[in-house]
Design goal:
mainly alpha; single chain
């Protein structure tokens, strides 16, 4: 797992919470794992401004596919 700033950790929690309410039938651990995996894939992004938006979009797409 790449190093995360405190702001990134908060973002991950917020995204996971929103997606848990959107996908109540998916186990909480699965939602969190999908969000973390999506974040890890973007950890090398040079422009960080939109990482949270992209993570949420990617995680939502993955959860819909389950």
């Amino acid at each position: 797992m790449p190093h995360r700033t405190p702001e990134e950790t908060v973002s991950i929690e917020e995204i996971a919470e929103r997606l848990r309410s959107r996908f109540p039938d998916v186990p909480e651990e699965t939602v969190r794992s999908v969000v973390e995996d999506s974040f890890d894939e973007l950890h090398d992004a040079h422009v960080r401004d939109f990482v949270a938006v992209l993570v949420e979009k990617q995680a939502k797409k993955r959860l819909k596919a389950l």
